[in-house]
Amino acid sequence: MTTSRTKIVIVGGGFGGLFCARRLGKADVDVTLVDRAACHVFQPLLYQCATGTLSIGQISRSLREELARHRNVTTLLGEAIDLDADARRVTVRRPDESTYTLDYDVLVVAVGMRQAYFGNEKFAQWAPGMKTLDDALSIRRRLFGAFEIAETLPPGPERDSWLTFAVAGGGPTGVELAGQIREMATRALAHEFHSIEPEEARVLLFDGGNSILGSFAPDLTEKATRTLQQLGVELHLGVHVTDVRPDGVTVTPKDGSPSTDYSARTVLWTAGVEAVPFARRVAEVTGAPSDRAGRIAVDSDLSIPGHPEIFVIGDLVGRDHLPGVAENAMQGGIHAASCIRRGLAGKPRRPFRYRDLGSAAYISRGNALLQAGPIRLAGLLGWLGWGLIHIAFLTGIENRISTLGSWLVTIARASRTDRTFILGGTTSPEHPYTWLKFFHPNMLPVGERETADRSAP
Q1: Distance between alpha carbon 216 and the CA centroid of its chain, in Å?
Q2: Average pLDDT over residues 326-347
Q3: Residue 51 DSSP class
Q4: Cα distance between residue 111 and residue 78, in whole Å
Q5: Percent over 70 (pLDDT), the chain
Q6: What residue ranges define each of the domains in the chain, with the CATH number in brackets?
């Protein structure tokens, strides 16, 4: 008599899903890892891709290639959209909208979080987040495209609006983006234009708190604030961005003061996160409690109460105030794999214990923050520590070498090696700027298409 091997389905190829799959490699199980992009993205460096320091190939790697040596691991392209917890079946959607199903004995939910607009989803059109490779390339197009468009305009308010960049959210991603935009304007682009002075570009950073980088120690926050101000970033604290338009934002102070409008053609959103639809579906089907952001309440072993066969790891974990950082996802993936292995061996599961390895944030060349327990580094030492940590966790030796090389070039020279951006051809349905809609009449409501056709050159 033969018995089938345990089927493990991992949804999500981020840090949690990848580390879980690796630990289950060569185990006596069949693992299927499904991801909507079929690649692992090193999210902490997305902003460097967006600002032209690194290419998408340096911060991502095919999951199929990464896991090729584990013969018991299968990788599939698709987005999980539904769960039948009783039948233990996940429904997955292909890019062409068709679907397929995956049966499991154990399910690991590692789908992470997406950008949150707090009920204002319309903001996303003009204020992209920073969660995917698509986001990074969209932001790169907007950033470098803004300088190019400003070059074609005469001095005045319209040119100024193209040279104004608004960042909503003062956490690590927002700080990193703001610092990089100013550094890009003052170094890489400083001597390349004839009609404009890129150094005059304004970067506005808005946050609802009393300080930026709220998760860091106060002394590090103060140093980061001074560094950003020295770079020329304009900090606006204690405010919320309450409206986003093609040509600017409205900012409302928390103390009830009157709102202020800012003209800015480029708006970037890093103000919050929320669970993806599949995570909310998992909570609904299993009856697991979840918070406003969609984080799911789990038992001490990271399984859903009443469903020991379903693990939730990474940013989605709603217990013990676990941080939404890469280290939490990595450790959660390793823990879930350990629980599965112990179960196969007839051993009881152990509770998950998160080990805080610290936090880091890059501000500008030679300036970064590193906080790990009692260790607090800023400036050059923080920058060196930040670089070593990020190189260590990049997937693939080739990515580590090429990324280190790109950083060395950036240190030695002001130029950035990956600034190419594509505005799209006449057949592309996507565009970042309103003037391109005249080349895409199908994007307009039916009643406006004739006018667009007559206006098109």
Answers
A1: 20
A2: 95
A3: T
A4: 12
A5: 86
A6: 7-115+274-345 (3.50.50.60), 121-271+359-387 (3.50.50.100)
Provide the token pair at 115: 């950008």
Structure tokens at 371: 């906080």
Distance CA 108, CA 18 (A): 11
Give the whole-angstrom CA distance, residue 86 versus residue 286.
9
Averaged confidence pLDDT in the chain: 87
The single-letter code of the amino acid at 447 is: G
Between the alpha carbon of residue 23 and those of residues 117, 333, 354, 356, 390, the distances in Å are 35, 8, 17, 21, 21
**Which residue among 66, 79, 176, 274 is the active-site one?**
176
The yes-or-no verdict on residue 414 having pLDDT over 70 is no
What are the angstrom distances between the C-alpha of 149 and each of 225, 226, 362? 30, 31, 28
Dig out the tokens for 325 from the structure: 């950082």
SS3 156: coil
Q: For the segment 8-38, what is each residue's pLDDT rounded down to a tens digit?
A: 999 999 999 999 999 999 899 999 999 999 9
- CB-CB neighbours of 162 under 10 Å: 24
**Do residues 213 and 368 make contact, with C-beta atoms less than 8 angstroms apart?**
no
Least confident of 152-166, 260-274, 326-340, 407-421: 407-421
Report the distance separating Cα 203 and Cα 167, nearest Å: 7
pTM of the model: 0.86
Q: Please state, in angstroms and rounded to a whole number, the distance separating the CA atoms of residues 125 and 244.
A: 9
Q: Cβ–Cβ contacts within 10 Å for residue 24, how many? A: 27
Tell me whether residue 398 is one of the annotated catalytic residues: no
Distance CA 106, CA 309 (A): 5
pLDDT at residue 443 in the model: 41
Q: What is the mean pLDDT of residues 411-415?
A: 57
Per-residue H/E/C for 54-84: CCHHHCEEEHHHHCCCCCCEEEEECEEEEEE
Q: Phi and psi (nearest 5°) for 39?
A: -145, 155
* Spatial distance between the Cα atoms of 363 and 231, rounded to a whole number of angstroms: 9
Three-state secondary-structure class, residue 29: strand
Question: What is the pLDDT averaged over residues 303-321?
Answer: 96
Contact status, residue 75 vs residue 67, Cβ threshold 8 Å: yes
C-beta of residue 293 within 8 angstroms of C-beta of residue 273: yes
Average pLDDT rounded to a whole number, residues 181-209 = 94
Q: How far is residue 165's CA from residue 202's CA, in Å, rounded to a whole number? A: 6
Secondary structure of 255-312 as H, E, C letters: CCCCCEEEECCEEEECCCEEECHHHHHHHHHHCCCECCCCCECCCCCCEECCEEEEEE
